[in-house]
Structure formats: structure tokens, C-alpha cells
């Protein structure tokens, strides 16, 4: 998936206080912005030069190459 597309989807999910799953070829990574509190929400970092996103959550940290992303599912709580 294109880096710009991934960033747009995740930024919209953050703005709308949603949660979801990023599915890659061999892994699923959950994220949540549903609490609306920056201390409780996951943190997503964007590195455009390598096209990698970082999902920093309470349970684990994940680093995902955007090219490996198959789908992003977003849900409203």
C-alpha cells in the first residue's frame, strides 16, 4: 500500500477517534484512538523516507513497511 494512503487512513482514524487493524502478509497489528486521550491512545509515527510506520502501543511496538500492508480495517466504537 502506498505510504500516503496509509498516512491518510490512519490520520482520519485518529481524528475520528476510531480503532482498527493493519493487516500485512504475515501479521496483524491493532491500533486504537478510541479513548480520545493522548495518554491512553496508541501513537503512530510516520517515516516517509523509508515508508515505514511505527505503531507504539501499550501491549507492543510494531514497525511496518507500507509495501507489506494488504488492508487497514477501521471501526467506530
Give an account of the 3D structure.
The protein is of the alpha+beta class and 77 residues long. Helices cover 17% and strands 43% of the residues.
Shape: globular
Using the CA coordinates, give the radius of gyration: 11 Å
Q: Low-confidence parts, pLDDT < 50 over ≥5 residues?
A: none
Order of helices and strands: HEEEEEE
Overall number of strands: 6
- Cα end-to-end separation: 25 Å
Please report which band the strand proportion falls in: under 5%, 5-15%, 15-25%, 25-35%, 35-45% or over 45%. Answer: 35-45%
Largest sheet: 3 strands, antiparallel
Strand order, largest beta sheet: 2-1-6
Mean pLDDT across every amino acid position: 91
How many H/I helical runs?
1
**Protein structure class:** alpha+beta
> Helix share of residues?
10-25%
Question: Which descriptors would you attach to this protein?
Answer:
43% strand, three-stranded antiparallel sheet, 77 residues, 17% helix, alpha+beta
Structure summary:
The protein is an alpha+beta fold and 77 residues long.
Helix and strand layout, with pairings?
Blueprint (H helix, E strand, L loop, with lengths): L2 H13 L3 E6 L3 E5 L10 E5 L4 E5 L4 E5 L3 E7 L2
Antiparallel strand pairs: 1-2, 1-6, 3-4, 4-5
